[in-house]
Amino acid sequence: MGFQLPPLLHVINGQRVASRDGATLAVIDPSTEALMGQVAHGSAADIDAAVQAADAARRGPWQELPPVQRGKLLFRLADLVTREREALAWLEACDVGKPISAARGDIDGVAETLRYNAGAADKIEGAVIPLGERVVDYTRLEPLGVTAHVVPWNFPLGMVARSLAPALAAGCTAVVKPAEQSPLSVLYFMDLVAEAGIPPGVVNVVCGDGPGAGAPLVAHPLVRGVAFTGSVEAGRAVGIAAAAGMKPAVLELGGKNAIIVAADADLDRLIEDVMMGGYENAGQVCSSSSRLLVARSVAGEVAERLAARAAALRVGEALSDPDLGPVVSAEQHAKVMGYLDGARAGGARLITGGGRPAGLPRGYFVAPTVFDNTDPASRIAQEEVFGPVVTITPYDTDQQALDIANSVSTGLVAGVYTRDLNRAFAMVAALETGSVWVNGWYLGGTQAPTGGTKDSGLGRERGLIAVRNFLRIKNVAFRL
Ligand code: NAI
Ligand code: MG
């Protein structure tokens, strides 16, 4: 073991503290099922202490700091994340089963997100509105105040950075509630927040689960803005609670993302991209490419090539740097297995994978799986599995492909693979998703907005627009 675990306690006002009631939760390495330790399990009392600290920090030195100085602190924090890349990557790998090289890439993404938003901190400009010579009217873009950040386990620190960086750039303070499955990296990161010179109380972390810690955080009256990433079900509850408190909420929820593969598509590129989009992070990505809708004339070839490639992926423990680690938890493993059994029972044709891979009796492993000839109305083709599972459904006309793509309740990302520009533009317009990627996957990045339509959520993260999530407009008018 090359690195020490951080203290597994909440971080409130710069102090490491246990839960008021002493409760803890197990921290498990999904590659080995080994118990790594016990992390504090927060409840309403811990949330209240953290929110009070964030509120005091908001009214204290943080609000006096010129925006350019906030930016400098975030640049410094990014440099510290880069310095600690190996430790942070190791923590992610052990906590969630992510292959170590993928975890390194995630940490590079965290630093990039911090730098992008650091540069935005001093570019938050209001407007002067012409109302005639006798009135001066202008807008102030003011920080919302204390903000809540409730994040999932698939990219533990990446998800924190995605909403925390713009919130801090905007001048807000924060309480972060990591997922109960993955508290380690953000607890380590909090030492870097302090070392960067960000005042105590500006960023606080309360560990714990959704009902115990997440719900009281969202509902706390001093919390004025909410950023949530996770399941549709929890996102809906968070959205309702935020609305009751008149708090803006950005909700980034799940997807069941289709790629439409036309007969003229570059199949080499497609197969390469599905290796990434379908199986990277063991398929536990909201924007994974889990449904392939393939023109019937090439569906057989796609199925054959995809199954061969998927079967050749190396599955193993995160620190051995395989292509594919385990899924995050026993619960997630059982959920994925349930989908696989249901699909087989429902008549989907399994062409590779379908269960626990041979030779890995321990750890939450799932073999990379492909189902061919999948009924587009079946559960496996409609619901987010969040595992290394890709379904193939043949189609006959472009309209049929679009209808199937749009037939799900979510609308996060869709893909189109074709060499026909007119087809691509027409499909981009017709697809009911927040993003459309043409002839590539996991496009976009820190600089480009992302988010969903339909049940995939509300609002957009990333890009400059994400800073606006944490600002409110005050209109000011002077009569001369
Ligand atoms: P979840 O949505 O329950 O958890 C995500 C975060 O929300 C965690 O920090 C959790 O503690 C918190 N949370 C849960 N209920 C809450 C509530 N009522 N109020 C405030 N916070 C709450 O997701 P879970 O149970 O970990 O995974 C279940 C399924 O959700 C997965 O199988 C997957 O399909 C989907 N999921 C989607 C993600 C995405 O990025 N779109 C990320 C994680 C899960
Ligand atoms: Mg864990």
Write the layout of secondary structure elements.
Layout: E1 10-12, E2 15-17, E3 24-29, E4 34-40, H1 44-59, H2 61-64, H3 67-83, H4 85-96, H5 100-120, E5 128-130, E6 135-143, E7 146-150, H6 156-169, E8 173-177, H7 184-196, E9 203-205, H8 210-219, E10 223-229, H9 232-244, E11 249-252, E12 258-261, H10 267-279, E13 291-295, H11 296-311, H12 330-345, E14 349-352, E15 369-372, H13 379-382, E16 389-395, H14 398-405, E17 410-411, E18 413-417, H15 421-430, E19 435-438, E20 453-454, E21 457-458, H16 465-468, E22 471-479
Parallel strand pairs: 7-8, 7-10, 8-9, 10-11, 12-13, 12-18, 13-16, 15-16, 18-19
Antiparallel strand pairs: 1-2, 3-4, 5-6, 6-22, 11-21, 14-15, 17-20
The chain binds 1,4-dihydronicotinamide adenine dinucleotide and magnesium ion.
Could you give a quick summary of the protein structure above?
The protein has 480 residues and is of the alpha/beta class. The protein is built from 16 helices and 22 strands. Strands 14-15-16-13-12-18-19 form a seven-stranded mixed β-sheet, sandwiched between helices.
Describe this structure in words.
With 480 residues, the chain is an alpha/beta fold. The protein has two domains: 266 residues, Aldehyde Dehydrogenase, Chain A, domain 1, CATH 3.40.605; 189 residues, Aldehyde Dehydrogenase, Chain A, domain 2 (3-Layer(aba) Sandwich), CATH 3.40.309. It is 40% helix and 21% strand. The chain has 16 helices and 22 strands. The chain has a seven-stranded mixed β-sheet, with helices on both faces. The protein has a six-stranded mixed β-sheet with strand order 9-8-7-10-11-21, sandwiched between helices. Strands 5-6-22 form a three-stranded antiparallel β-sheet, with no helix packed on it. α3 packs across α7, α4 runs antiparallel to α7 and α8 runs parallel beside α9. The chain is globular, with a radius of gyration of 23 Å. It starts with 9 loop residues before the first strand and ends with a strand. The structure holds 1,4-dihydronicotinamide adenine dinucleotide and magnesium ion (MG). The site of magnesium ion has 6 residues, from β3 and α4.
